[in-house]
Specification:
Blueprint (H helix, E strand, L loop, with lengths): L19 H12 L4 E3 L1 H5 L7 H8 L9 E3 L4 H14 L3 E4 L16 E4 L6 E5 L4 E5 L4 H9 L3 E2 L12 H6 L7 H4 L2 H4 E7 L5 E3 L13 H4 L8 E8 L1 E2 L3 E8 L3 H13 L6 E5 L1 H12 L7 E8 L2 H17 L3 E3 L1 H9 L16 E4 L2 E4 L3 H14 L8 E6 L6 E10 L6 H21 L11 H4 L3 H20 L28
Parallel strand pairs: 2-4, 3-4
Antiparallel strand pairs: 1-2, 5-6, 6-10, 7-11, 8-9, 8-10, 12-14, 12-15, 13-14, 13-18, 16-19, 17-19, 18-19
Helix pairs in contact: 1-4, 10-12, 14-15
Bound molecules: flavin-adenine dinucleotide.
């Protein structure tokens, strides 16, 4: 197997020969010693992100997050000074926000500096007339939303991880929220960014994304997972907190009719804020636990919102006509409302998966022509990848819709994986690999909004093609020639290259 074929958690070698104490001393000159951690404390307080990969490695005493030092800057100037120091010493730097990623991206697999951005939380400017806000990258989404709600405003970007995820992390991982079908994914929310490059240059990108001033550079950093620069602030668009919400729920005879109803809405201009279509397994074994409604099969939940009740009611009525036209039976609207009220319970015990389970959610996007085939291919490939004796479950829903297609969200779970770490990884990797290749074969794009991280990096070349991958490498080389920022992430470290450990003189 070549480097490119192997998930990087199998090959990453932490560069442990840093003089962490000396590095910490240099960082303390920039930040003060109270904002620098090193030694065991630096690893204990920052165990890594929330992916199964991170949890299972930690359980076996082989943590993926191998930072030598944690630095917590409060200002863009401090971030720039840290990056200048790292560039001079060629020390890897891994930016981290809430570390709520599920692909292993925020782990400092090569050691070096973990840049904890959660102290950068200032709202720099709020323009109520234009409904825009410039906010620092470490602001936690839920806190931001609560501050805005108190003023009658909303960010409308609600990932299920809002409690932990930072705005910078959402941008870097190209995230999506539960209201994306109407309000867009993070790339639509971000108008502009302030970015610190690997040499410490601070770039203020144009204030608006719709311009004729050359290429739109802000989007270069959306989804770049910390490999091209550190996002220190973004200007995002806001909305008024909607005055009206209307829920509905429908039961379809099969998934195909549900997808067709969604397609007809999206291609005719109807914009539900929430549209979640659950396959049979997901409706009965997942959704039902939260809404306690006795669901029988494929179920769609919709929610329309807005300032004007007439518009909200009109859209809901068109949605009803379309769903009924596709043979759906209308269920109690309370099912949708109950999901909305309890939408976060899925992520806490007893609903959230825990070791010794193996779990992972794939999220694959496709156009309307291919989405059904992608669903069939991916879920079949997952099931065929493992022996039935493991008792794997696969539950799928479609929750982010576009005017050209949608995405599937198949979540697999194995009640108890092998005790041996490598055997557990083999099982996990076999399912992810089968599902990802099946998605590509059926014409899907391998990720909708969770990012690449360590899990999907081995498949990036297949997704982009060799020339596309060369383009990405050239961009990386131009912006970060020494691979100081997140070395190896996004499959951007050719074997034998990348950041090298520096010998730092003792302080
Ligand atoms: C229970 C649960 C539910 C989730 N639901 C959703 C969901 O609904 N929608 C969704 O999109 N995601 C979801 N996620 C995944 C995760 O929350 C998102 O990927 C989120 O965007 C990560 O934000 P973070 O601040 O935690 O980033 P981190 O995990 O800290 O980092 C993610 C990546 O971004 C880089 N990074 C972080 N901050 C910066 C920065 N300022 N500049 C440059 N690079 C940076 C890191 O190096 C890393 O590569 C969920 C996760 C969990 C555990």
């Amino acid at each position: 197997m070549s480097f490119a074929d192997r998930p990087s958690y199998r090959t990453a070698a932490p560069m442990t020969d840093f003089d962490a104490r000396a590095l910490a001393a240099s960082l303390a000159e920039i930040l003060g010693s109270d904002r620098v951690l090193h030694g065991p404390e630096a690893r204990r307080r920052h165990p890594g992100d929330m992916s199964w990969l991170t949890y299972v490695h930690a359980q076996h005493g082989r943590p993926l997050n191998g930072q030598d030092v944690v630095a917590s800057p409060r200002t863009t100037r401090e971030v720039a000074d840290i990056l200048k120091l790292a560039a001079r010493l060629k020390v890897p730097v891994t930016p981290a926000g809430g570390a709520s990623g599920v692909q292993g991206a925020a782990n400092a697999t090569c050691g070096g500096i973990l840049l904890d951005l959660r102290s950068m939380t200032r709202v720099r400017n709020l323009d109520r007339r234009s409904l825009t806000c410039t906010v620092e990258a470490g602001m936690i989404v839920k806190t931001f939303e609560e501050q805005l709600n108190a003023q009658g405003l909303s960010f409308t970007h609600y990932p299920a991880s809002a409690e932990w995820a930072s705005i910078g992390g959402c941008v870097a991982a190209r995230g999506s929220g539960v209201l994306s079908t109407k309000y867009g994914t993070i790339q639509d929310h971000v108008l502009s960014a302030e970015v610190v490059l690997s040499d410490g240059d601070v770039v203020q990108l144009p204030a608006l994304p719709r311009h004729g001033v050359g290429p739109e550079l802000t989007q270069l950093f959306v989804g770049s997972e910390g490999t091209l620069g550190v996002v220190t602030a973004v200007t995002v668009r806001l909305r008024h907190l909607p005055a009206h919400r209307k829920f509905a729920a429908y039961r379809f005879d099969d998934l195909a009719h549900g997808i067709e109803a969604g397609r007809r809405m999206m291609t005719s201009g109807v914009r539900p804020a929430v549209m979640r279509l659950y396959d049979r397994e997901a409706a009965i074994h997942s959704l039902e636990r939260a809404v306690t409604a006795g669901l029988e099969g494929e179920t769609m939940i919709v929610m329309f919102d807005g300032d004007h009740p007439t518009l909200v009611d009109a859209e809901a009525a068109v949605c009803r006509d379309i769903c009924v036209g596709e043979g759906a039976r209308e269920l109690r609207a309370g099912i949708g409302e109950s999901w909305w009220d309890k939408r976060y319970v899925f992520y806490y015990p007893p609903h959230a998966p825990q070791l010794p389970q193996i779990w992972c959610t794939m999220d694959v996007a496709a156009d309307f022509t291919r989405i059904e085939a992608v669903y069939r291919n991916v879920t079949r490939a997952m099931r065929e990848a493992v022996d039935p004796s493991w008792g794997m479950t696969v539950k799928t829903h479609l929750s982010h819709w576009y005017d050209w297609g949608s995405m599937i969200y198949p979540r697999f779970g194995i009640p108890k994986g092998p005790d041996d770490l490598d055997a557990a990884l083999d099982l996990h990797d076999a399912i992810v690999r089968a599902a990802t290749l099946a998605a590509i074969e059926a014409g899907g794009v391998i990720n909708d909004h969770h990012g690449v991280g360590m899990r999907l990096a081995p498949f990036l070349e297949q997704q982009f093609g060799p020339a596309g991958m060369r383009l990405l490498r050239r961009i990386k080389h131009g912006l970060d020639p020494d691979h100081v920022l997140c070395p190896g992430k996004l499959a951007l470290r050719p074997e034998g290259q990348g950041a090298r450990p520096a010998v730092i003189p003792a302080a």
